[in-house]
Every structure is written in structure tokens, then in C-alpha cells.
């Protein structure tokens, strides 16, 4: 069997073709009102970053709608940071290379909103009070200068049937505590079960 790798733009375009006109024209350099409406409704955004060595990270950020992405102006958004595991992989990457890509989702919707741009980390802003949840302000925020923004079609969500509860089967996998025990067998199972019990875990959210 020959080399099946695609190594040139010509090979790639020969298989997938050129972008449809509507797909090419939907990319905007700044937020339109409908983009801002979407960001106000989303409870979840995924942030992709890379470091100087090319190592990648994609981090999910979740909060109540209106608290997970803040629109500063038509060309700038901010994503708050809440207390977490302190790895801050994405932030460390931004310190190396500030280019970021984001995808925000709205439960039940197949389309998504993509924003790509250049980021910086800030520890305060006049919008931090607005982004407080349960009286807790963000500890940091990722401000993103927008380079391009566009809606992504629903095909992936339709193929996966992600939003159809009848397709869900979370119990096919071990629990979070069981997974952690497999990866770190020296840890106590009872301690892990208590730590990852939802009632206890929710106490750590903010």
C-alpha cells in the first residue's frame, strides 16, 4: 500500500473541494448583534491554545449563561477563570503564544459559534463584578481580541445525536473516582468517592 498521507493543499482540496460560498462569506472580523446574543445564551465555551513547542490544550469553561463569556466590545470578549485544579495549561500556553481558538455551544443546538483571536490574561477589570457567581468574582480572565468569528454548521451534532437523551449512556464508563483510582492506584478509593461525589464537588465550583 502506498503513502496515504495528505501533504499538500492541492491534495487536500482535490478530496474535499473548495469552501461553499456561504461558508466563506460568513466569517466576520468582529461581533455582529446575533453573535453577542449567542454568547449571552451559552453556558459552555471550549478554549484551544498551544505553547512554543506545539503542545496543544483544549479547556472547557462553564458557567451560567451570561457569565461564561463577556462581550467587552465588538472586537473583544473576556472569559472568566474560576477556581480549579491549578494546572492552568491554557494560560501557560497563552504566555508563550497568545493565539487562541474558541467554540461556544448552546444545549440542544447543533450549530456552534467559533471565535479565533489573540489573548491576554488579566487579574481585574470593570466587568469582573458583573461576572461574579454566588458572590465570587473571577480570579482571572482571558481577554481575546477577535480576528474572526463565524457560526459552524450542525453536522457534527446531528451525526453524533449528542443532544438526544435516548442515546446517552454515561454508565458505560467507570465513575470519575474509579477512573482516578485506575490511573493513581495508590490513592484511597473511599477518599476518591467522597471527593468526586457531586454534592461535595459542587462546593468547589466557586
Report a brief summary of the structure.
The chain contains eight helices and seven strands. The protein has helices at residues 9-16, 21-25, 33-41, 89-96, 155-160, 176-183, 189-196, 198-201, and strands spanning 44-50, 56-62, 70-73, 76-81, 99-105, 112-122, 140-152.
Strand order of the largest sheet: 2-1-5-6-7-4-3
Distance between the termini: 54 Å
CATH topology of the largest domain: Pnp Oxidase, Chain A
Provide the low-confidence segments as ranges.
Answer: none
Radius of gyration: 20 Å
Number of strands: 7
Global outline:
globular
* CATH architectural type of the largest domain: Roll
Q: How much of the residues is beta strand, in percent?
A: 25-35%
Helix content: 25-40%
| CATH homologous superfamily descriptor of the largest domain | Electron Transport, Fmn-binding Protein, Chain A
- Kindly name the structural category: alpha+beta
Domains counted in the coordinates: how many? 2
User: What can be said about the biggest beta sheet?
Assistant: 7 strands, antiparallel
| Sequence of secondary-structure elements | HHHEEEEHEEEHHHH
Give the mean pLDDT. 95
**Tally of helical runs:** 8
By CATH reckoning, the class of the largest domain would read: Mainly Beta
Amino acid at each position: 500500500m502506498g503513502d496515504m498521507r495528505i501533504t499538500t493543499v492541492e491534495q487536500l482540496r482535490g478530496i474535499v473541494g473548495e469552501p461553499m460560498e456561504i461558508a466563506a462569506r460568513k466569517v466576520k472580523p468582529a461581533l455582529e448583534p446575533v453573535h453577542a446574543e449567542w454568547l449571552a445564551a451559552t453556558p459552555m465555551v471550549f478554549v484551544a491554545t498551544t505553547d512554543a513547542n506545539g503542545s496543544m490544550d483544549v479547556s472547557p469553561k462553564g458557567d451560567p449563561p451570561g457569565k461564561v463569556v463577556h462581550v467587552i466590545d465588538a472586537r473583544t470578549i473576556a472569559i472568566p477563570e474560576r477556581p480549579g485544579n491549578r494546572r492552568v495549561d491554557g494560560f501557560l500556553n497563552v504566555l508563550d503564544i497568545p493565539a487562541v481558538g474558541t467554540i461556544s455551544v448552546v444545549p440542544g443546538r447543533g450549530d456552534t459559534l467559533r471565535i479565533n483571536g489573540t489573548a491576554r490574561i488579566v487579574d481585574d477589570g470593570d466587568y469582573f463584578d458583573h461576572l461574579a457567581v454566588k458572590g465570587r468574582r473571577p480570579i482571572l480572565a482571558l481577554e481575546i481580541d477577535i480576528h474572526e468569528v463565524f457560526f459552524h454548521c450542525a453536522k457534527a451534532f446531528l451525526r453524533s445525536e449528542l443532544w438526544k437523551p435516548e442515546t446517552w449512556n454515561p454508565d458505560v464508563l467507570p465513575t470519575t473516582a474509579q477512573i482516578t483510582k485506575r490511573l493513581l492506584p495508590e490513592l484511597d478509593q473511599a477518599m476518591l468517592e467522597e471527593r468526586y461525589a457531586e454534592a461535595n464537588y459542587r462546593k468547589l465550583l466557586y
